[in-house]
Amino acid sequence: MKIVLIGRGRLATNLERALLKAGHEVVSINSRTLENLPMEADAYIIAVKDSALKEVATAATKDRETQVFFHTAGSMPLSTFQGMTRHYGVIYPMQSFSKERLVDFEEIPIFVEASDEKTMVVARQLTGSISGHVYELSSDDRQYLHLAAVFACNFANHCYAMAAEILEQHGMSFDMMLPLIDETARKVHQLHPLDAQTGPAVRYDENVIRHQAQLLLDHPDMKDLYERMSLHIHRKAEQHD
Question: In this predicted model, what pLDDT tens digit does every residue of 66-84 receive, in sequence order?
Fold first, then answer.
C-alpha cells in the first residue's frame, strides 16, 4: 500500500519503520508545512500531538474528500474528521514511543475504528500487516483505555523519575531499582495488580509511612503525593479484602 504519514515525532518514527518493514511504500510529510503532500494514496495517517490534530487534518483533507484518513490519538474521537472527508478512522497503537528506542510493532495492540466499511477494511489490512494484535474499539471506550494507559505508563514512569531523584541526591544509582521494577512488571502478568501490591501502605504501617514522609520534608510536593498514594493504596487493599 502507498501510505502518506503526516508527522515526524516519536510515534511517526516508529510507525514508519514498521510500515516499511511490512513492505509498504511510505511518504513522510512534515505536519507543519504539508509540503509535497500527495493528492492520492491508499491511506493518509496523521500522527501529530492532540492539540494540532484538527488544524493539520483540516489542511490535509482539503481537496482530498474521497481519500482515506486516519489519526493515531488515543484520546481524540473518530468525529474529529467529521465534515472534512468521507472516509476516516482511528489507528491507535497503545505503546510508549521514543525516537531513541524503536519498538517491535508485531507485539503492540492496535485499536481501530472507522466511519464506514471501506475504511475499516483499509484499517484492518494496514494494521494487520504490522501487528498480530488488532482490535476494534469505539471512541467512547478508547478514551478510558487511554486514561488507564496514562496511569499504567506515564504515572508509573514519573514514579521512576522521583525514585531516581531521591537516589541520585544521596549518591546512589537508579540502576539499583531495575531488578525490582522488572519483577513488579513480570508479576502482573500472573496476578491482578491488587493481589501484587506490597509495601508499607497495604496494611498502613504508620511508623514506616510517617518516617518516610519526614524524609521528604524538603520536597513538599513529593511528600504530599507519597502520603496520598499510601492512603489510596491502603483503602484499595481494604476494599479488596
Answer: 999 999 999 999 999 999 9
187: closest CA among 198, 200, 196?
Answer: 196
159-214 tens-digit pLDDT? 999 999 999 999 999 999 999 999 999 999 999 999 999 999 999 999 999 999 99
With 0.85 as the threshold, say if the pTM is over it: yes
Gyration radius from the chain CA atoms? 22
